[in-house]
Write a structure and sequence with these properties.
Length: 434
């Protein structure tokens, strides 16, 4: 089957609604990044903000471990809706605080946990519509839109602050964005239902084969055995790359407001430039690559990440250099992360595939919650130069792991399904609505 295929109107509607939902949700997340400067305005430090982020790590781990253990127990779009509602409630709770106390800790715990479920569920919906060849592209649509929201949110929040709104009022605006995201899940669920109703049993079997891969000769392993086998599969290398990338991402994203302030720069430069770069590579360039998870793409992006992080050491107080460094990071990281996620799925066996994106989500989200604690401590002890030295080491490790090329598990061909015309497979494609 060709990696690039025509998609049915219903599949295109699903993608469009998913992108809209993710855009609102990630913009809400971006607005709530202003909790960092809010905490500093109360006389606290980066270390305090890092501790608030890390407070959500245990609950996030529990939520995503349950998702890993039962990847199809609850449909991803339902998880998405519940997570957005929880995020809105937590944003309102944060808006009701005026000090660093127990209620702000609770708000940050719920914010982190709800966002981790959102971040994991969205690529699961996109991946269900994909083949191996275009999985990185479709995951890139979802995660690229997330990056767009990450860029829009802080800029929107900063604009509201400049307009005279308090931090609490800005957090209420973030809650409104999360509610809008939850509302979009309603039509998304309707179109996902149409995909299920419109597919014949034979078409559904073909879609399952395209999404999960042809079944091997042995019977599938039990769920616990499949979970353990993830750590013995070739997918462990790209999963490790996802984990390390999360450390880079959370540092560059969460501490950008305080870093820019320390250099007398406007953090809008980073978020706007970074967002434009991510849009260009994930929603533009990836469409023209035969396989955006290829070895060449992985090699170029990982090496580029080292250069882009290094560039931040030399930006000084120059807006131009700050813009160039932000552009380079957006291009390299923006193209790299969905490639690593897709490679993890593509290298997995059939029994492991359903758990691969939840596993990637677990590693990514726990890292982005825990690593700010490390980053804040490093900034306090060695300043931002020490922090960037650490990030350069991490990106070097990602580059080294990118040179390891795993082999896909051997599969046997699925039984023929003569009742499904070839054109139907091309049009309906590889959708596996959850």
């Amino acid at each position: 089957m060709s990696g690039r295929q025509r998609r049915s109107p219903v599949e295109r509607a699903v993608l469009g609604l998913l992108i809209g939902c993710v855009l609102f949700a990630s913009s809400a997340f971006g607005v709530l990044l202003l909790i960092g400067p809010f905490v500093k305005s109360l006389g606290e430090s980066e270390a305090t903000y890092g501790a608030l982020c890390a407070a959500a790590a245990p609950t996030t781990a529990i939520a995503l471990l349950l998702l890993l253990r039962y990847p199809r127990k609850v449909a991803p779009h339902r998880l998405l809706a519940v997570a957005c509602v929880m995020y809105a409630a937590a944003a309102l709770l944060a808006a009701a605080t005026d000090s660093v106390g127990a209620w702000l800790v609770v708000a940050c715990v719920v914010l982190g946990t709800a966002w981790s479920v959102t971040y994991t569920a969205a690529p699961m919906i996109a991946s269900a519509l994909a083949t191996d060849a275009d999985r990185a592209t479709l995951i890139g649509y979802a995660t690229g839109t997330i990056q767009v929201g990450f860029g829009i949110g802080p800029v929107l929040g900063n604009a509201l602050r400049r307009a005279g709104l308090s931090y609490q009022e800005v957090f209420v605006a973030g809650a409104g964005l999360a509610v809008a995201a939850a509302c979009l899940v309603v039509p998304l669920a309707i179109f996902l239902g149409r995909l299920r109703v419109g597919a014949s049993p034979a078409e559904a079997a073909v879609r399952d084969a395209a999404a999960d891969g042809p079944a091997p000769a042995p019977a599938p392993a039990s769920a616990p055995a499949a979970s353990r086998s993830v750590f013995r599969s070739p997918s462990i290398v790209p999963l490790a790359m996802v984990l390390l990338c999360a450390c880079v991402f959370t540092t560059m994203n969460s501490f950008q407001t305080t870093f820019a302030d320390s250099r007398d720069l406007d953090f809008d430069i980073f978020y706007v430039t970074y967002t434009i770069a991510v849009i260009a590579v994930r929603l533009g360039l990836s469409r023209f690559l035969p396989d955006s998870a290829s070895d060449r793409v992985v090699a170029v992006t990982t090496i580029g990440m080292i250069g882009s992080v290094t560039a931040f050491v030399f930006v000084g107080s120059s807006p131009v250099l700050y813009c160039v460094a932000s552009l380079a990071l957006g291009c390299t990281y923006g193209l790299g992360l969905p490639a690593f996620q897709a490679r993890a799925v593509n290298l997995a066996g059939p029994a492991e595939r359903a758990r691969m994106l939840p596993m990637a989500g677990l590693l990514f989200e726990v890292a982005i919650l825990v690593f700010p604690l490390v980053a804040g401590s490093v900034v306090g002890a060695s300043g931002y130069r020490g922090l960037f030295a650490l990030l350069i080491g991490i990106t070097a490790a990602v580059t080294a792991l990118g040179q390891i090329r795993g082999r896909r598990p051997e599969r046997v061909a699925p039984p023929p399904l003569p009742s499904v015309p070839t054109a139907a497979v091309a049009d309906g494609g590889s959708a596996e609505p959850a």
